[in-house]
Structure formats: structure tokens, C-alpha cells
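Example for tutorial group B:
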């Protein structure tokens, strides 16, 4: 979902599910050591994703696509039949993603976390510091 501060097409979709997982992990963290560990790791990961958003947002960029669902328009999806040469050409010509689509990976990843702001504002005390760092990035 993230590599060297670059967010990929999967990131906004993954963030939707990770937010749900974080909410459940936070609720169970007092009784379940795995949930406790996972909540801490997810908060750190969310801070990373949101920092990537802010770094990208400070640069000149296209406008985000109007709707989250626009990320799934057929024109933006790659063929189900993988063509290695076509894939290499896309990267060599620096035409991997249209600018509005690429910025939308960042914007909608931020929006996914923003939708769970109320959860982040009510974390158990032991997660208050990492949650505050995430909230600061919202």
C-alpha cells in the first residue's frame, strides 16, 4: 500500500478495511494482547500513510477524482490479462497513472481515516499518544 512514501491504487481501499480492523482492535485491546499489539501497529501505519498524504498535498498536484468510486472506473483499471511489455512501457514512459487518479490514492486514503476520526478521539489511554499523532495529521 505504501513504498518509499508513494501510495498505490490499493491504499484507499485497504485503509477502509484497516480502519474497521483498528476500531475492533482498540475495543478488544484490554482483553486481547494480539489486538493490543495490532492497534499500536495500525496507529503507526496510519501516521505513515497520513504523512505521505501531507507530503504529496504540499506539492503541485491534480484535483482528486470527484468520488471515491471513480477509482474503479473501467478506464483506470488495468487489463485482467497481464502484458509484461505493456507494463514496462507504462513505467518507462512515466504514464503509470493519470495525475488525477494518482493524487486520488492519497486524498481518499486520508478521507478513509478521516471518516474514523471519532474512533481516534476515543481511544483507550495507552493509545492516546499515537492516536494524537494520527489526529494531528487529519
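The residue assignment follows.
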Amino acid at each position: 500500500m505504501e513504498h518509499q512514501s508513494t501510495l498505490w491504487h490499493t491504499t484507499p481501499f485497504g485503509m477502509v478495511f484497516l480502519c474497521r480492523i483498528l476500531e475492533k482492535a482498540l475495543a478488544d485491546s484490554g482483553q486481547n494482547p494480539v489486538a493490543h499489539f495490532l492497534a499500536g501497529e495500525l496507529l503507526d501505519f496510519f501516521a505513515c500513510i497520513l504523512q505521505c498524504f501531507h507530503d504529496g498535498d504540499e506539492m503541485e498536484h491534480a484535483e482528486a477524482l470527484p468520488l471515491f468510486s471513480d477509482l474503479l472506473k473501467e478506464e483506470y483499471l488495468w487489463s485482467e490479462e497481464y502484458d509484461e511489455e505493456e507494463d514496462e512501457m507504462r513505467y518507462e514512459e512515466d504514464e503509470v497513472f493519470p495525475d488525477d487518479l494518482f493524487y486520488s490514492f492519497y486524498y481518499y486514503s486520508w478521507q478513509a481515516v478521516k471518516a474514523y476520526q471519532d474512533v481516534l478521539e476515543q481511544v483507550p489511554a495507552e493509545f492516546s499518544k499515537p492516536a494524537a499523532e494520527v489526529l494531528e495529521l487529519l
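The chain is about 60% helix and 5% strand. Compare this with the pattern of hydrophobic and polar residues in the output above.
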